[in-house]
Amino acid sequence: MGHSHGHGHHHPHDHDHGAGHEGGTGLPAAFDTSVPDEALTPDQRSRRSMLRRAGLLGAGLAAAGVLGGPATGTAAAQTPARGRKGKGFLWLAGDHHIHTQYSNDGKYRVVDQVRQGAKHGMDWMVITDHGNVTHAKIGVEKVNPDIKEARAAYEDTLVFQGLEWNIPAAEHGTVFVHPGKNEVSVLKQFETDYDGSVKGASDSTPANEALAIAGLAFLGEQVRRRKVKDALMLANHPARRGVDSPHEIRAWRDATPASHQIAVGFEGAPGHQAAGIAAPLGMGRARGIYDNNPSANSFAGYPPESYRTWGGFDWMTSTVGGLWDSLLAEGKAWWITANSDSHQVYTDTAKRGGPDSDYTANGKHTDPVYSGKIDLTQGDYWPGQYSRTHVGSDGFSYAAVMDGIRAGRIWVDHGQLISGLDARVSGGSRWATLGGALHVRKGTNVTLTVDVSLASGANWAGFVPKLARVDVIQGDVTGKVSDKDTFTAPTAKVVKSYEVNKSTGTVRITYALGRVDRPLYVRLRGTDGNRSATGLMGAAVDPNGPAIDVVGDADPWTDLWFYSNPVWVLPA
Fold first, then answer.
1. 27, 2 in Cβ contact below 8 A?
2. Could you give the CA distance from residue 320 to residue 317 in angstroms, rounded to a whole number?
3. Which 8-state DSSP code applies to residue 273?
4. What number of helices (H) and strands (E) belong to the chain?
5. Strands 437-440 and 430-433
6. pTM score > 0.70 for this model?
7. CB of 375 within 8 A of CB of 201?
8. Which site among 128, 187, 215, 292 is 20 to 30 Å from 194 CA-CA?
9. What backbone phi and psi angles, to 5 degrees, belong to 418?
10. What is the C-alpha to C-alpha distance for residues 128 and 169, in angstroms, rounded to an integer?
11. Per-residue pLDDT tens for 298-355?
12. Per-residue pLDDT, 56
C-alpha cells in the first residue's frame, strides 16, 4: 500500500469558492509577499501583521517539514518520508467545531463566526450545526447559501460545510465534506439515515453501534463513488459523558479502508473553555463543561477522573499511558485536535434575535441583535480566540487541509502559547514529521529535533504567554490489542523534559532515541508551568503532567498547554 512522494497522493486542487483568495503564488493574499500591504483588505492586513509577528512570512512561511505521502492507514504501511529541504508545509490554523443560528442552541450568523475566526487567525473553519430532525429537514440545505456567501466575503478563509453528528450509541462528532455540488445532498442523506437523534439511536446498544459504523461506511462510499471529493469524521469531547467506549473508537477508526480513512481522530481538548471561569465573572462550571458523572450508557471501565478535563485537555489525551497512547501503540493513525465548540461567546454583547425566534418552524433562529449588556454567563470563545488546530498543508486549498488532517500533520495549542512547531525524527538519510513514519534499518541511530517558535506577541487575553517546559513522550508499538476495550499503554512515558529559559525567538530541542531496534513513536507536549501534577499512571510515567481542572474555578488562561501528534519510527 505504498504512497508516492511529494504531491502524488492528493486530491485535485479546486477553487469552488473562486480563486480570488490567491495571489500570484497560489497563497492567500496575506501570506503572499508579492502582494503589497496597501493592496490588502483591512482583514488581510491584520492577518499579515499577525503572521509577521509570528515569524511566518517569507523564508519562515512554512516550518521545513517533510513532503512525504499522507500518512494513511497503519504506520507500518506508510511510505518512508524523505526530506525535501527548502520546501515545507503551509501551517494553516483552523477549527472544526463551530455552531450558528442553525443550531437549536446557537445564536450567530455564519458570517459572524467566519468574520471572528478570520480576525482571530483562522485559515480554515468547519460549520457544524447540531444534527436533529429540524436540521436534517431544513437547516442542512438552508445554511448552504450562507456558507457560500461567507466563502465569497472572506476569500482568505476556507469554510467547510459539516454538521455535528449525534453518533449512534455515543457522543458527538464533526462530519464534513469537501465543497462541491453534492455537499448538501450527501450531508442531508447522511444525517437523515445515520444521526442518532434523528433515528432515536442514542442508547449504547450493539444495533446502534452498528448504525454508526454503517454511517461511516456510507461516507466512504460517497468518496469512492466521487459524489464528494473527500469526507472526514472527528469525535468531539470524547470523555465528557463516558459514552465513547474504547471498542467503539477503534471500530470507527477501522470502519473504512486504511487507504481512505473517514474517522481519523478526536478532540484532544474540547471547546467551552471559558466555562471554568469562576462566578460571578464567569459561568462557574467546568472547562469544556466536563462536570458530568456516569450514566446508564457510560462505559463502566472509565474511572471517575475521566469525566473532568486536565489542563483543559480531555482525559483520553492528557493521560500519558492512557487511551490515546493505547491507540497509538497499535501503530495506527488516530489524531488529536482542539476547537472552540463556539455557540455563545463569553463577554459578548449579542442576544438571540427576539421572541419570534422559532427554530423548529424555520430551521434557524432569527439574527442576533445588540443586547446592551456584557454576557458573563457563557462558556465559549470565538474560533481561534483560545483553541487552535494547526495543520501542515501542501497548499491553500480545501483538499490540502483535508489531506493534512488525514495525514496527522497537526499540533494544537491553547492561548497562543507558542507560535510554531517543527518536529522531525531523522535516521540514516531519511526523516519524517508529525503523523509520519520513519522507516530505518534496525539499529539505526535516530534523533528527534524540535524547533519551537515562542509566542511573538500578546494573546487574546492581552498578555504574552511564556513556555516553561517541553516534554518528549515515547511509547512502543505493541500491535493490535486482544481486548478492544483496552485503554492503557504500559510502555508510554515522559522520557525527557526540557526547561525553556528564553522568552523570544526559537528554541531547538534535540533528543537522541539511540539505536532503535523496535517500533516506537514519540509525541510532544508543552506547558506554561503554572499548574502541574503527577500523572494518573504515577511519577515514573509522568512526573509533571497537567492537573485535574477544578469545577467552578478553572480560568483557562492561567493554564496553557500545547500537544503534537506522534511520529513513528519503524525499524526493519
1. no
2. 8
3. G
4. 11, 21
5. unpaired
6. yes
7. no
8. 292
9. -135, 165
10. 20
11. 999 999 999 999 999 999 999 999 999 999 999 999 999 999 999 999 999 999 988 8
12. 61
Strands (DSSP E) along 428-572, which ranges? 430-433, 437-440, 444-454, 469-476, 493-499, 506-516, 520-527, 561-564, 567-571
- Identify whether the C-beta of residue 435 lies closer than 8 Å to the C-beta of residue 566: yes
Contact in structure between 187 and 163 (CB atoms under 8 Å) = yes
Q: Which cell is 15 given?
A: 477553487
Half-sphere exposure of 257 (CA within 13 A, CB side): 7
Backbone angles phi, psi at 137, to 5 degrees: -75, -40
Torsion angle in degrees (nearest 10) through CA of 333, 334, 337, 342: 130
In SS3 terms, 182-244 reads as: CHHHHHHHHHHHHCCCCCCCCCCCHHHHHHHHHHHHHHHHHHHCCCCCCEEEEECCCCCCCCC
How does pLDDT run across 42-86, given as a tens digit for each residue? 778 777 877 776 656 543 333 333 223 333 233 333 332 333 333
For residue 280, whether the previous peptide bond is cis, meaning omega lies within 30 degrees of 0, is yes
Cα separation, 411 vs 564, whole angstroms: 4
Q: How far apart are CA 98 and CA 125, in angstroms?
A: 8
User: Hey, is 91 helix, strand or coil?
Assistant: strand
Rounded to the nearest angstrom, the gap between the alpha carbon of residue 9 and the centroid of all alpha carbons in its chain is 22
pLDDT at 500 over 90: yes
Determine the Cα angle at 180 with ends 178 and 182, to 5°: 100
- Cβ proximity of 340 and 382 under 8 Å: yes
Q: Give the pLDDT of residue 55.
A: 59
